[in-house]
Amino acid sequence: MVALGDSGLTVSSIAWGMWRFAGDDVAAARMRVEAALDAGVTLLDTADIYGPDNGEPFGAAESLLGRVLAEAPALRDRMVLASKGGIRMGVPYDSSATYLAAAIDASLSRLGCERIDLYQIHRPDLLAHPQEVARALDDAQTAGKIAAVGVSNHTPAQAAALASFLTVRVVSHQPEFSALATAPLFDGLLDQAMTRNMAVLAWSPLGGGRLADPQDERSRAVVALLDHKAEEAGVDRAAVAYSWIMAHPARPIPIVGTQNPSRIATIPDAYTPRWTRAEWYAVLEASLGERLP
């Protein structure tokens, strides 16, 4: 378990993501949620935009989770619930104070909850002044609708700008981060997270499927090293990929996206591998395609 930045919340060091949480079968959906909780995962990450990518309406993933929680209310007490807003179909981004207030209320309604534990601005709205965004988030936090504030897909400068206008802390970043998407190591995001005690939630920790099915020389070079480590540790490639992320001192939290209950049950395997510095850097060099100086 790790602290979720300065939020006062404690969460599992691996999260379960609900981008592909879809369908009308509430019993099957509940089985997936319970599999995550039973695997020791307490941080569940969703968003209001999750739905259209699965051919479903805006808000569908939140609505499905709401139906699960309506059927089994006790599950809510076992999780730290994270959601995101600020994306509008066809706009694409809207973090105006008016829209965010409405989006937070809509998410709460779909989820059937009184509070979202971690509310994240999904992507930065370049037409919204950070002071306006901060006002909406402060108001929601004061009203008890959200417990903590985070950002997703924001640069360190964008996160700092928002933080400068908030009365509460920005407690988390959510960047793409994997052995194939290493930008947070170099663009200052992980440095900011460590400096400001922010949690880091790593989305697409398997490189958007490229680590599962490598199609180019770079990916195959990374996978070869991961597979060697997996054989040594007695776990699968995915577990090793998650553990590589978790080895960084910022203690990034990989967001595991599988919707298969049997695969969800294997999430704790990621705690098994132990990386030497030489092994960890070898993966990074393979990803970069060059030796570090």
From TrEMBL:
Gene3D superfamilies listed in its UniProt record: NADP-dependent oxidoreductase domain
State the superkingdom. Bacteria
Ranges for domain NADP-dependent oxidoreductase come to 14-271
Please name one Pfam family that this protein belongs to. Answer: Aldo_ket_red
Q: What is this protein called?
A: Aldo/keto reductase family oxidoreductase
